[in-house]
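pls design
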């Protein structure tokens, strides 16, 4: 159940969802391990591109990045064209030079809110990293250090509000639980019996 190579093979068999791309969202609470998991899954996919939503959010727009994502990424990819993102520099507090994201068989989109309502029509699958929000936030605070305490205080309020208004978890195709040996993939709440492309019968 921990073999990401096997999971990667299954993801490649999903129907394209955004032009020629199978767009896979990795969502969960801040600090739950989404970035690490997405990186490992991208490696298992042979170097699949990963779009980090932190590159589209800003200090003033923690969750108001939907229009930016649509214009810079989703619309071009849906036409089979390269996306051009202008990643936000969290230190300089401004957007940096544009980066090109070429269409690929699988692209991962990683970040809190990756499975929001406006994005789901473009997704081939939605994965949820399972870690209780209090533990996730504690990990994030420890990772970032005391210098970002004020940011985290504001973030936790904004994240609670976002998921209250636009939850992702109920629409997850698979729930990912980290264990010492790797990751366990469980059936997500969106999957009905016998229709999952992410799990084989009996897993989870």
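designed seq:
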């Amino acid at each position: 159940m921990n073999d990401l190579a096997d999971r990667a093979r299954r993801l490649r068999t999903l129907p394209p969802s955004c032009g020629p791309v199978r767009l896979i969202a990795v969502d969960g609470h801040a600090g739950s391990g989404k970035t690490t998991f997405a990186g490992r899954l991208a490696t298992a996919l042979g170097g699949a591109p990963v779009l980090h939503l932190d590159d589209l959010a800003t200090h003033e727009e923690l969750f108001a990045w939907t229009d930016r994502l649509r214009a810079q990424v989703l619309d071009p990819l849906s036409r089979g064209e390269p996306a051009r993102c202008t990643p936000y520099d969290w230190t300089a507090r401004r957007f940096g030079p544009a980066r090109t994201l070429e269409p690929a068989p699988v692209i991962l989109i990683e970040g809190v809110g990756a499975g929001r309502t406006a994005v789901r029509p473009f997704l081939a699958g939605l994965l949820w990293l399972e870690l209780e929000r209090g533990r996730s936030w504690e990990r994030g605070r420890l990772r970032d250090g005391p210098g970002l305490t004020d940011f985290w205080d504001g973030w936790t309020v904004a994240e609670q509000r976002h998921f209250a208004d636009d939850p992702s978890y109920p629409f997850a195709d698979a729930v990912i639980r980290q264990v010492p040996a790797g990751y366990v993939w469980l059936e997500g709440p969106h999957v009905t019996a016998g229709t999952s492309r992410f799990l084989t019968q009996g897993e989870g």
